[in-house]
Amino acid sequence: MQNNSTVKNQNNISWESVLELVYDSKIDSVGLKERVSSLATRSIKKDSKLQALNMIVSMCDLTTLEGEDTEGKISQMAAKAINPDPSDGEINSVAAVCVYPALVATAKEKVLNSSVKVAAVSSYFPSGQVPMDSKILDTQYAIEAGADEIDIVINRKAFLEGDYRKVFDEIVALKEVCKDVHLKTILEVGDLKTYENIRKASLISLAAGSDFIKTSTGKLSVGSSREACYVMLKAVLDYKRLTGLSAGIKVAGGIRDSKDAIRYLVLINEEMGDEWLSPDLFRFGASSLLDDVLKQIKKLKTGAYQAGYYFPRG
Q1: Catalytic residue among 85, 151, 291, 292
Q2: Which structural domain, as residue segments, surrounds residue 186?
């Protein structure tokens, strides 16, 4: 595992600089909640809503992470990812499909010649409670199988014990394995409990080389929230101010309808700007969200809702 004092990125950040940011993580929770609440009241016009819904589709990572996953299930999900609504050729493909490492090769084959990327959870998702050597082997396996993106989980045990350097070093080591493969680091905000902890974990993950930071595994009852996203986006902006690098954000866990998803887009647009309104820098990890978005698109275009079975399940 790397023990150097600097991170190998475009603008090296010393561990001492990381610590300064981490220990300067006081957050005005009242002001934060008021800002997020005020943005949630913004309304958008019909034409803008259709544009927003199509954007959400292009930002979705369709995901299946169950013990019952089969090659047939992955094939169905990949087909839906490429062509979410076969009756509407104006709807884009989703950003990616996310699977366990053992199914990466199948997913890669099924999305061949499309724009859909294959993401794999790694580092023994969702707990991450294994030795570092096992996390590295897990990640190497997924990359060798063809993964375009890797989703890891931070070492919450080390973080909650205050061993921030261990968290940092593990992410650095996994990013070295990934090289040009995008690394998305899951904070699991439900376990972190406080806004201050979310900010600390965000900054450590970014400084260690994460290309994206992600709210949740989707395996806890407490998933994403716009408040957590707000804390994370501020950390991303601070990181860009220090390094000139633009990192992405992925929100996952509990986002099931288009109205909620649009609120996230408003939040990102108002606080970060147009640059982040792209699948390259913002994602939704919410498979059930896609069906609702497709229904809303059909409603705006035809004036009528479609039955749930109208859209093929992934």
Answers
A1: 151
A2: 16-310
pLDDT value of position 307: 58
Q: What type of residue is 48?
A: S
Domains contained in the chain, number: 1
Q: What is the pLDDT of residue 37?
A: 92
User: Which one from 214, 234, 295, 298 is the annotated catalytic residue?
Assistant: 214
Task: Assign residue 153 the CATH number of its domain.
Answer: 3.20.20.70
- pLDDT average per 10 residues of sequence, the chain (314 residues): 41 70 81 92 81 96 90 96 93 96 96 97 84 94 97 94 93 94 95 93 94 87 85 94 92 89 95 95 90 93 66 51
Q: Residue 214 catalytic?
A: yes
pLDDT at 3: 40
Which among 108, 135, 234, 250 is annotated as catalytic?
A: 250
Secondary element (H or E) of residue 258: helix 258-272
Q: Tell me, yes or no, if 151 is annotated catalytic.
A: yes
Q: Which of 208, 210, 245, 250 is nearest to 229 (CA)?
A: 250
Residue 9 lies in a domain: no
Strand partners, 284: 60, 251
Two structure tokens written together for 194: 């406080």
Q: Please indicate, yes or no, if residue 1 is contained in any of the structural domains.
A: no
Q: What pTM was estimated for this model as a whole?
A: 0.89
- The pLDDT score that the predictor gives to residue 84 is 95
Which residue in this structure is represented by tokens 């595992």? 1
280 belongs to the catalytic site:
no
Residue 76, domain member (yes or no):
yes
For the residues of 92-147, what is the DSSP string, one character each?
PPPSEEEE-GGGHHHHHHHTTTSS-EEEEE-SSTTT--S-HHHHHHHHHHHHHTT-
Does residue 11 form part of some domain? no
pLDDT at 308: 55
